[in-house]
Design a protein that fits this description.
The protein is α+β, with helices and mostly antiparallel strands. The protein has 2 domains: about 230 residues, no CATH class; about 130 residues, no CATH class. About 30% of the residues lie in helices and about 25% in strands. The protein contains 13 helices and 16 strands. It has an 8-stranded mixed sheet, sandwiched between helices. The chain has a 4-stranded antiparallel sheet with strand order 7-6-14-13, with no helix packed on it. The chain has a two-stranded antiparallel sheet with strand order 4-5. Helix 5 links the parallel strand 9 and strand 10.
C-alpha cells in the first residue's frame, strides 16, 4: 500500500477531520512530568520535541534535539483507561418513603473515540482485550460500547525505549492487525513528515480529505528502514523459548523466592499493564441507607483477598501471588485466550517501585529450567 505523505499541517488537519465526524480525539500530551493520554483539541497539544528516559523503576521526560511528535515510549497509561475504565457505576437504588425500592441501571453513552498515536504494542493489547472482553460467550457491555466504532490511528515505533521488548512478543515495532490509519514519522534532511496509509474504508475516507502528497519510493524506504532499525534496538528481550513450557517446568524454582523478597505486592504492574482486565464490585450507601450504588472497579491479583474462597484465601503469600501473575501473563493466558497476555510494552518494568523486570525474571527462570541447564537437565 503506497499511501500518502502528510506534513505537520496535515496532522492538524487529521485531528480536525476526526472532530468534524463527532469523534473525541485522544492522544499523547505532556502533563506534569509525564506523557499521558488525554483528549486533544488540536495536534499542537502533541508532545513535539519530547522524549523519555526509561529504566526499571524510572521514568523521566527529556528534551529532544528535533520536533518529533511520537518519538517516545509507552507512558503510565494505556488505551484501556478509555475502553475498560478504572471505575464504572453500574446501578443506583433508592428507597421511597413508602418503602418501595427503585433500581436504575446506569446509562452508558460513551463518546465516539478516535485514538491518535496508538503504538503497535498497544494495538496488540487492544486486540488481546477484544478477545477477553468481547470475543467469548460472556461479553462486557461497557467495553463493547466503547470499543465498537473506535477509530484507531497507529503510529509505528521508530525509537524504542530501554525497557521495550515488543520484538520478542511479536507485537512491533511495525503495525500489525486491524487499524484505520497507520503513520510512520520521519524527521531528516527532507523535513518532518508522516507516511500515512489507510487500513479500513473509514481510514481511506479520512485520508482522502487531508492535504498530502503521493508517497514516493524514497519516503517509503526511509520509513521502512526506520522501523527495521528500531527492531534492532530493543532495550530488553525475552528468552527465545516456549514460555508456557518454561514456566510449567519451573513452578518450584528458587527464583520465585528471590523475586518474592523484592515484590511489594502493590499491583502497580497490573494497573499499568494494557491487557490486565480483572475487576471486582463494591456496594456503597449513604448515611440514611435510602440510597445505594454498585460500582465496578479494577482489581489486582496481588491483593490478599483476590483469591478468597469460602473457607479462606488461596494465595496467602507474595510468592504465590507473583507466580500467579507471571505464569498467567506469559503462560496460561494462551490456554484461556489463544495468545500471550504480554505485548512487550515494558510498562510493568518502568512503574514497578522496586524495579522488578519481567524479562530478567523470565531469563532467570529459564536458567533454572531443564532446557536452560537447571539441575534437572543437561542444558542446551
Amino acid at each position: 500500500m503506497t499511501g500518502a505523505v502528510l506534513d505537520v499541517a496535515g496532522l492538524e488537519a487529521l485531528v480536525r477531520a476526526l472532530a468534524r465526524r463527532g469523534r473525541t480525539v485522544v492522544g499523547p500530551t505532556v502533563r506534569g512530568d509525564a506523557i499521558v493520554l488525554a483528549e486533544l483539541g488540536s495536534a499542537a497539544e502533541l508532545p513535539y520535541g519530547w522524549g523519555v528516559e526509561l529504566e526499571a523503576g524510572r521514568y523521566r521526560l527529556r528534551r529532544r534535539a528535533d520536533r518529533m511528535a511520537f518519538a517516545h515510549s509507552a507512558g503510565p497509561q494505556s488505551w484501556k483507561y478509555f475502553l475498560h475504565p478504572e471505575r464504572v457505576r453500574q446501578w443506583t437504588a433508592d428507597r421511597a418513603q413508602d418503602g418501595t425500592v427503585t433500581v436504575t441501571e446506569e446509562p452508558d453513552a460513551p463518546p465516539s473515540y478516535a485514538f491518535l498515536g496508538v503504538r503497535p504494542c498497544d494495538l496488540s493489547a487492544i486486540a488481546v482485550q477484544d478477545g477477553v472482553l468481547i470475543g467469548g460467550p460472556h461479553v462486557d457491555d461497557t467495553y463493547r460500547r466503547r470499543r465498537t466504532g473506535a477509530f484507531l490511528v497507529v503510529v509505528e515505533c521508530v525509537e524504542p525505549g530501554a525497557t521495550c521488548f515488543c520484538v520478542s512478543m511479536g507485537t512491533g515495532p511495525g503495525a500489525h492487525g486491524s487499524w484505520d490509519l497507520a503513520l510512520t514519522e520521519l524527521h531528516d534532511e527532507r523535513g518532518h513528515r508522516f507516511w500515512a496509509r489507510s487500513g479500513s474504508a473509514a481510514g481511506e475516507e479520512v485520508l482522502a480529505e487531508l492535504p498530502s502528497t503521493p508517497a514516493d519510493e524514497a519516503t517509503v524506504a526511509a520509513a521502512g528502514g526506520s522501523v527495521e532499525r528500531a527492531a534492532g534496538r530493543m532495550g530488553r528481550t525475552m528468552p527465545e523459548v516456549d514460555l508456557r513450557r518454561m514456566l510449567r517446568d519451573t513452578l518450584e524454582a528458587e527464583r520465585w523466592n528471590d523475586v518474592a523478597a523484592r515484590c511489594l505486592t502493590c499491583g502497580n504492574c497490573t494497573m499499568v499493564c494494557p491487557t490486565c482486565y480483572c475487576t471486582t464490585t463494591e456496594d456503597v450507601t449513604d448515611l440514611t441507607g435510602d440510597h445505594a450504588e454498585r460500582w465496578r472497579r479494577w482489581d489486582v491479583c496481588y491483593d490478599l483477598d483476590f483469591s478468597y474462597l469460602t473457607g479462606g484465601v488461596v494465595r496467602r503469600t507474595g510468592h504465590s501471588r507473583y507466580r500467579q501473575w507471571l505464569t498467567h501473563k506469559l503462560g496460561t493466558w494462551h490456554d484461556q485466550f489463544g495468545s500471550s497476555g504480554c505485548v512487550g510494552c515494558g510498562r510493568c518494568i518502568v512503574w514497578c517501585p522496586v524495579g522488578i523486570d519481567i524479562t530478567e525474571e523470565a531469563h532467570a527462570l529459564h536458567a533454572e529450567s531443564p532446557a536452560g541447564g537447571g539441575e534437572d537437565g543437561a542444558g542446551s
